[in-house]
Automatic annotation (TrEMBL):
Protein name, per record: DUF2683 family protein
Pfam families, per the entry: DUF2683
Organism lineage: Bacteria, Pseudomonadati, Bacteroidota, Sphingobacteriia, Sphingobacteriales
Amino acid sequence: METLIIHPESKEQLTAVKAFLKALKISFEKKENVNDGYNEEFSAKIIKGREDIKNGKGITLEIDDLWK
């Protein structure tokens, strides 16, 4: 069987597509658009970095300190 990827352009379209699939009893899954077209490995590193910052890992540098 095929898998379709649908790109609704508005919330209204998304709601209509979900209602249509439910009416036809077609299973679907929600997947957040994490990488927005970027390489998945790169996106995973960005996500990991954001999680590290939230967890207190990392350091803060002043711009002037970058040139020392």
